[in-house]
Design brief:
- Strand 23 and strand 24 form a beta hairpin.
- The protein is α/β, with parallel strands linked by helices.
- The strands form eleven sheets. It has an eight-stranded mixed beta sheet, sandwiched between helices. Strands 22, 26, 27, 29, 31 and 35 form a six-stranded parallel beta sheet that branches. The protein has a four-stranded parallel beta sheet with strand order 25-28-30-34.
- It starts with a helix and ends with a strand.
- 31% of the residues lie in helices and 27% in strands.
- Bound molecules: ligand UGB.
- The site of ligand UGB has 23 residues, from strand 6 and strand 17.
């Protein structure tokens, strides 16, 4: 084959030569003569170049990594061979008490040294939403999207710094989510965030692999099969963009890594950062008590002689590891009904100083793995092409002695309630005794966190009984939204609200830094919404609120099945209507009383 006949471009010629050396002749075999199919050929070479540039070590690096991992997989090498799982180094913050307050206060003073990293490249196949998950409202009282909520949290962090400066916001997108994420930011004036604080890092797909020799798979003659590489790409992108190093130079000490649909995550942020700071954790995984069998990994300290590794054991690997080591019965519930090891919610706090060193050492390629499905026992052929994958929580696999990984356990619904499953699957998960992780439960828990904050401030909270809406558990209320601008810590809530009560179907929304509530009673279905701009000081004292409030209306079967009903309502099975809520908006600085 004459490479010059395939392309006149010198860079492409060099890449083809490298690929031929790496056993990829089939990619260029039987090419049509120049003049025939030139367009697909050009597109093919462009896609090879793009992938080559996006993967550290290029396509040949990817192929050689694949060969090594495929050889290990063929040998059935167990990555955990010889390791015994022990409890990780953990801090238990499941209760609100002095310890919790201590860590919150520490973390709150660290906002100016924290950057937020949001991995949002996933397609959300289990949810099946026709759009990006970041656009879905986390609640439908005011219909705040996940992205709007996260942005509000960043602005609230900034407002609480001694010398306010924008919190860097790194968003990882993919081909599936990039355009819509950019559009959401643009159409909403970046939710008030500054352009320079937002860093979009787009992950690329990786080529599928056809066999144990690492031959790249073709969909058609001039087209590779491409597949997602996983959320671990965030490390590669933070390395290749130079951003991790840049942030460190700017004085950022910790990255707080979050997933796309967890509206609770900022509740736990201050205390979790406090733990990372005090304990000197290089890697701190937020965790919850895990229900056996659920789709969250288990966090354990794996010990083999002197080697210790605190790791997430992904949910599909946990049961076999337990059976082979400490629990012959596998992943079974303890006396409290929980799994033996805390559950990983994939909210990670990474100390930037050690991270930058690891990235340099590894070029950001973090613990790739391969999971081929073989055609038969000989393990010589695959049922379908496979690919290398990577998970962001695997970073500690590359830790050296002295680098510390720990776990901070929170009350589950305070820190974690994702929206991952469509309404049917969520109902089935509930019926099977697991967390439904649906739009409805995520919203129900969003209000619950508000109630927890009120209760911590001593307000009498009368919670409604849990009911089933389309076979998914939901607690009607009270629906409490204490927006990030109002408070970022329990201490702040306590300093702004005292006394009072709220009834089971009432709604309270407080949005603004200078709102004070003293002995405010919301009865029945009443609702009070206060929105105050910066500088507007609003005091509500000894007031009883009675009005029509907001009503939760279940969708009829017809509405549920009609495409005229917005998809974000259909994925939860209800809507919320304003039936006379008291809404007070203060747009100008000044002192006000209600
Ligand atoms: N994501 C990307 O940005 N790019 C990708 O290529 C893939 C995903 P999933 P899953 O907390 O519930 C994780 O698909 O399988 C983003 C942990 O591995 O929802 O549920 C995507 O947009 C598991 O240990 O992950 O598993 C989303 O924001 C447990 O913690 C995030 O990555 C579980 O989440 C997660 O993607 C959980």
């Amino acid at each position: 084959m004459n490479i010059q006949d395939l392309t006149g471009n010198k860079n492409e010629q060099a890449l083809i030569a490298e690929l031929l050396d790496a056993g990829q002749e089939h990619l260029f075999a039987n090419w049509d003569a120049p003049g025939t199919n030139d367009e697909p050929k050009t597109a093919f070479l462009k896609s090879l170049t793009r992938i080559n540039e996006s993967y550290p070590g290029g396509l040949t690096g990817y192929i050689s990594n694949a060969r090594k991992l495929l050889a290990d997989a063929k040998e059935d090498r167990n990555p955990f061979e010889g390791f015994i799982p022990h409890q990780p180094d953990k801090v238990d913050l499941t209760q609100f008490n002095d310890v919790y307050d201590h860590y919150e206060a520490l973390g709150r003073n660290h906002f100016d040294k924290t950057a937020i990293v949001l991995v949002a490249g996933g397609l959300g196949e289990r949810l099946g939403y026709n759009g990006i998950k970041l656009d879905i409202p986390v609640e439908v009282t005011e219909s705040t999207s996940y992205l709007a909520h996260y942005a509000a949290c960043l602005k609230a962090m900034e407002a609480r710094m001694k010398k306010p400066k924008p919190v860097p916001f790194i968003i990882m997108t993919s081909e599936d989510t990039n355009a819509k994420t950019l559009a959401a930011l643009k159409n909403n004036n970046r939710f008030g965030l500054k352009e320079e604080q937002i860093h979009i890092l787009k992950q690329e797909l990786v080529p599928a692999i056809a066999d144990n020799d690492g031959r790249l798979a073709l969909e058609e003659k001039y087209k590779l099969i491409l597949k997602p590489h996983g959320h671990g790409d965030i490390h590669m992108l933070l390395y290749s963009s130079g951003l991790a190093e840049k942030l460190e130079k700017q004085g950022i000490e910790h990255l707080f890594v979050i997933q796309d649909t967890n509206g609770q995550v900022f509740n736990a942020l201050p205390a979790a950062i406090g733990v990372s700071v005090e304990k000197g954790f290089d890697f701190n995984s937020l965790a919850v008590n895990r229900i056996p069998g659920e789709a969250v990994g288990g966090l354990a300290k794996l010990v083999n002689g002197k080697t210790e590794l605190t790791l997430n054991i992904e949910y599909n690997q946990l049961d076999p590891l337990l059976r082979a080591t400490v629990s012959p019965e596998g992943d079974v519930p303890d006396a409290q009904g929980f799994s033996m090891f805390p559950g990983n919610i994939n909210v990670l706090i990474i100390r930037l100083n050690s991270y930058v060193k690891i990235l340099k050492r590894t070029r950001g390629i973090i613990a790739e793995f391969v999971n081929p499905k073989y055609s038969d026992k000989t393990k010589t052929a695959f049922k379908s092409p496979t690919r290398l994958e990577t998970m962001m929580q695997d970073l500690p696999k590359l830790f050296e002695p002295g680098e510390k990984a720990g776990v901070t356990i929170f009350n589950r619904r305070w820190c974690f309630s994702a929206n991952k499953n469509n309404i049917k699957d969520a109902a089935a998960k509930h019926a099977a005794g697991g967390p439904p992780e649906s739009g409805a439960t995520a919203e129900s828990d969003f209000y619950l966190a508000g109630r927890m904050k009120l209760a911590a401030a001593g307000v009498k909270v009368e919670a409604a009984k849990e009911e089933l809406i389309r076979a998914i558990p939901f607690t009607r209320g009270p629906r409490v939204l204490l927006r990030p601008a109002f408070a970022m810590t329990l201490d702040e809530v306590r300093s702004k609200i005292s006394g009072g009560s709220i009834a089971d179907e009432a709604t309270l929304v407080l949005d603004g830094r200078d709102i004070r509530l003293e002995n405010v009673e919301l009865s029945g279905r009443s609702a009070l919404v206060i929105k105050a701009c910066d500088g507007a000081k609003v005091t509500v004292k000894n007031l009883k609120i009675e009005n029509g409030g907001f009503e939760l209306v279940k969708l009829t079967d017809e509405e549920q099945n009609s495409s005229a009903t917005p998809e974000y309502l259909r994925l939860r099975g209800y809507r919320i209507e304003n039936c006379g809520a008291q809404i007070a908006v203060f747009n100008k600085p000044g002192e006000y009383r209600l």
